[in-house]
Design goal:
Number of helices: 12
Helix content: 40-55%
Radius of gyration: 24 Å
Shape: globular
Distance between the termini: 70 Å
Length: 324
C-alpha cells in the first residue's frame, strides 16, 4: 500500500484516509467484507456487485498528445467566454442575492455580479477567495496539505537501458529510502512518447515522503533521477534529453479528518445557494475522478439554475395575476 499511495498521491499512507484515497476499494470492502474477497470474486465472476467488482476495467490511459489536450479542447469550445490571466481576489454575497466576484487583471480590479459561482480551484486557492463567505471553512480548506512535487522526464537511447522496460514502471516503498517515488515507463505505456530506438522515462520526486527533494535545482533533480535510473533499470549512458517541472504545491493530501472537512464545504454550499466548490481534493486526483467530480458539479449547477428559472417564472405569473 505504501508504494501505491506514494505513486498515486505522493503521500504518506499513515496520514491519509482510505475512504478518500481509494473510495473504490472501500466500497468493495463494504460490499464483500474484504478487498481480497472482492478480487477473487472478480477473477472468477462470482460477484454480485456488477461493475463495482470489475478490477480489469481500470487502466492507465492518456491522449496521443498528452493530457494537456483535454483543457485545450475545453478552451477552444469556450472560445470568447474564457478569460485568461485573471486573478480572482474574492467571492462575497451580494445585497439582494447572488454573488460579487472581484477579479484583478494586472493592476486593474473590477467586480461582476453572478447568480451562481463555481469555484474549481485547488483547496489552498479556494481558501483564499472564500474568506469573506466563511472564514472557518476557508481555514479548513487552507489546512489541506499540498506537499511539493517534481516531475522529471528523461530520454535515453533504448540500448543504453539494460532493463527491457516491459511494464508500466515501478513504485518504490519508503523502506528502501529511494530518492524517487516511482518511475513510469512512458514510451512503453503510450505510443509516440519517444522516437524509434529511444526510451522515455518519467520520475516523481518529493511529495509527503521527502518534500525537500522536490525543491532542488533542475540540474540536481535530473542528476538525482538519472542515478536512480542507473541503479534500478541499468542506465549505461547519460540521458539525451531532460525536462523538469516542479509544483511547489503538489497533490492534495486527504488526511484522516478529510470527511468532516468536506462536510464543512457542503455546509458552506448549503448556506449560500448558487455557490459550488469542486476540485481534485474532493474525490480523487486521477483524470477520471476529476472528470466525474466536474460532471456531478455541472449537474448540480444545471439543476440549481433550472429551479431558479422555474421559481422566477412562477413569481412573474403570480405578479401578472395580481395585476389583473
Amino acid at each position: 500500500m505504501d508504494p501505491l499511495v506514494a505513486g498515486l498521491y505522493a503521500g504518506d499512507p499513515e496520514q491519509l484516509s482510505v475512504s478518500a484515497v481509494f473510495p473504490h476499494l472501500k466500497r468493495l470492502e463494504r460490499i464483500y467484507g474484504s478487498v481480497v474477497l472482492a478480487a477473487i470474486k472478480s477473477r472468477f465472476g462470482s460477484g454480485t456487485g456488477g461493475s463495482a467488482c470489475n478490477f480489469a476495467r481500470r487502466a492507465l490511459f492518456s491522449f496521443r498528445d498528452g493530457l494537456g489536450v483535454l483543457p485545450q479542447a475545453i478552451a477552444r469550445h469556450l472560445a470568447d467566454r474564457l478569460f485568461l490571466n485573471q486573478y480572482v481576489e474574492s467571492v462575497r454575497r451580494a445585497a439582494g442575492g447572488g454573488f460579487v466576484v472581484t477579479v484583478r487583471q494586472h493592476r486593474v480590479a473590477h467586480s461582476s455580479k453572478a447568480d451562481s459561482v463555481v469555484i474549481a480551484l485547488p483547496a489552498y486557492a479556494a481558501a483564499r477567495i472564500t474568506v469573506q463567505l466563511d472564514p472557518s471553512v476557508a481555514e479548513t480548506l487552507a489546512q489541506i496539505s499540498h506537499p511539493p512535487l517534481a516531475v522529471v522526464f528523461l530520454g535515453y537511447r533504448a540500448h543504453a537501458i539494460a532493463h527491457s522496460l516491459d511494464g508500466a514502471g515501478m513504485l518504490t516503498p519508503a523502506v528502501e529510502k529511494r530518492n524517487v517515488l516511482g518511475i513510469m515507463f512512458s514510451s512503453t505505456l503510450f505510443a509516440g512518447r519517444a522516437p524509434p530506438g529511444h526510451a522515455a522515462l518519467t520520475a516523481f520526486v518529493g511529495g509527503a515522503r521527502r518534500p525537500q527533494l522536490a525543491l532542488l535545482k533542475p540540474g540536481e533533480l535530473q542528476d538525482l533521477v538519472h542515478d536512480e535510473v542507473r541503479r534500478l533499470v541499468g542506465a549505461r549512458a547519460a540521458p539525451l534529453l531532460a525536462r523538469t517541472h516542479v509544483w511547489h504545491r503538489g497533490l492534495p493530501q486527504p488526511g484522516l479528518d478529510h470527511a468532516p472537512r468536506i462536510a464543512q464545504v457542503a455546509a458552506l454550499e448549503g448556506g449560500h445557494p448558487g455557490l459550488f466548490l469542486t476540485g481534485n481534493y474532493f474525490s480523487g486526483v486521477s483524470t477520471v475522478a476529476c472528470v466525474q467530480q466536474a460532471t456531478e458539479t455541472a449537474r448540480r449547477v444545471q439543476h440549481y439554475l433550472a429551479s431558479r428559472r422555474a421559481g422566477d417564472e412562477a413569481l412573474s405569473q403570480g405578479c401578472e395575476l395580481i395585476q389583473k
